[in-house]
Amino acid sequence: MVLLAILAFELISIVITRVGIEDIGVSAAQQALDEYAANHNADAAFQIASAEAESQGATVAKKSFEISDESVTFKLEKVAPSLLLFRTDKTASWTEVSTTVYAEPIDAGGQLS
């Protein structure tokens, strides 16, 4: 029973992290787009996106970060909490969740620009 509970925790943790990373990406992307629209400074936009992601336990891959007036794209990574999987090299990668975030600016009326 204990083993089943641990396996359930591991699986649920990965699923929740996978779903949550999408929300983190949306928030980080919107903040980056807002910063870039205000200042046209890609480094500042990256710093804003990175800070937002890090505040929620995720990481923005700097080499993947591309921003313009029309869109932002970057790779977002996060490690799911784990009781056992992180302990071996073969299973540690199972807890690593990543996604590619793509977002376009949203104007004040809620429509895509």
Quick summary of this structure?
This protein is α+β, with helices and mostly antiparallel strands. It has three helices and four strands; from the N terminus they run ααβββαβ.
Write the layout of secondary structure elements.
Elements: H1 2-39, H2 42-55, E1 58-60, E2 66-67, E3 72-79, H3 89-92, E4 96-103
Helix pairs in contact: 1-2
What does this structure look like?
The protein is built from three helices and four strands; from the N terminus they run ααβββαβ. It has 113 residues and is α+β, with helices and mostly antiparallel strands. Helices cover 50% and strands 19% of the residues. The longest helix has 38 residues, at 2-39. Helix 1 (2-39) packs antiparallel against helix 2. Strands 1, 2, 3 and 4 form a four-stranded antiparallel β-sheet that branches. The protein has one domain (2-103).
What is the number of helical segments per DSSP (H or I, 4+ residues)? 3
Structural class: alpha+beta
Mean pLDDT: 88
Kindly estimate the percentage of residues that lie in beta strands according to DSSP. 15-25%
Element order: H for helix, E for strand: HHEEEHE
Over all CA atoms, what is the radius of gyration? 17 Å
Helix content: 40-55%
Oligomer: single chain
The coarse overall form would be elongated
Low-confidence segments, ≥5 residues, pLDDT <50?
A: none
Q: Please summarize the sheet with the most strands.
A: 4 strands, antiparallel
Distance between the termini: 53 Å
Number of separate domains:
1
Number of strands: 4
